[in-house]
Specification:
Elements (H helix, E strand, L loop, with lengths): L5 H4 L5 H54 L6 E3 L5 E6 L19 E8 L2 E8 L19 E6 L1 E8 L5 E7 L7 E8 L2 E3 L2
Antiparallel strand pairs: 1-2, 2-3, 3-4, 4-5, 6-7, 7-8, 8-9
C-alpha cells in the first residue's frame, strides 16, 4: 500500500463523534446542575426548619414562663379560642412582683393573638382582674407589643376544666408544609404534650 502521508495518520473527529461527545457533555452537565439545585433546595429547607425550631423553642419558653407565673383564676380564653389573656405579676423587665403578704401582685394583662401571620403578645396595665382587654385594641408604648412567632396559619386555645390551657398552632408558609403543634400548660408549671 502506498503511503498517503501524515494527513491520514492523524485524522480529526468525525461529525458523529463530535455529536456524541457533545450530547454526553450536555447530559453530564444537566445531571451536575440538577444535583446542585437539589442540594441548594435541601440547604434552604434545613435553614427554614432550623429557624422554625428556634422560633418554637422561643415560643414554648415564652408560654412556659407566662403560665409558670400565672394563676388559673386569671386566665381568659375568647369564645372563638383565638385570643388568650393571662394576668401577670411580671414587669417589663421580667421581674416578678409580690405584695406585702407574699402573694403575686398582678400588674398587667398579657394578651396573645394572631395578626396576619404573626403571633403577637400585647401588654396592658391592669385595671380590672375580672375583664381582660381586647388584645387587638391595646395601644401604648412599643414595649407593650412583642412578636412571638412568624409564619403562623392558625392559633387556637382552650381552657380545660382542670385549669390547664391547651394551645394549638398550625405553622407553615404554604398548605403543603404545615406543621401542627399542640401544647398543654398548667398554671404554675409548663407541661409539653
Amino acid at each position: 500500500m502506498p503511503d498517503r502521508g501524515p494527513a491520514l495518520r492523524h485524522r480529526g473527529l468525525s461529525l458523529i463523534e463530535v455529536v456524541i461527545t457533545m450530547s454526553m457533555l450536555t447530559v453530564l452537565s444537566s445531571v451536575a446542575l440538577g444535583l446542585m439545585s437539589w442540594s441548594r433546595h435541601l440547604l434552604n429547607r434545613s435553614d427554614q426548619r432550623t429557624d422554625r425550631n428556634r422560633q418554637m423553642t422561643r415560643l414554648y419558653t415564652a408560654f412556659s414562663e407566662q403560665f409558670y407565673h400565672s394563676s388559673s383564676t386569671y386566665i381568659v380564653v375568647s369564645p372563638q379560642g383565638d385570643k388568650l389573656s393571662v394576668a401577670t405579676a411580671r414587669d417589663l423587665e421580667n421581674r416578678f412582683h409580690t405584695g406585702s403578704q407574699g402573694y403575686p401582685q398582678w400588674l398587667a394583662w398579657e394578651s396573645t393573638s394572631v395578626e396576619s401571620d404573626l403571633l403577637v403578645q400585647r401588654r396592658s396595665e391592669l385595671t380590672s382582674l375580672s375583664e381582660p382587654p381586647d388584645p387587638t385594641k391595646i395601644v401604648g408604648q412599643p414595649s407593650a407589643r412583642r412578636v412571638l412567632a412568624r409564619g403562623l396559619q392558625d392559633f387556637r386555645t382552650a381552657l380545660r376544666n382542670d385549669g390547664s390551657v391547651e394551645i394549638q398552632l398550625d405553622w407553615g408558609t404554604d398548605s403543603k408544609n404545615i406543621e401542627k403543634v399542640h401544647w398543654s400548660f398548667r398554671p404554675g408549671q409548663g407541661v409539653h404534650q
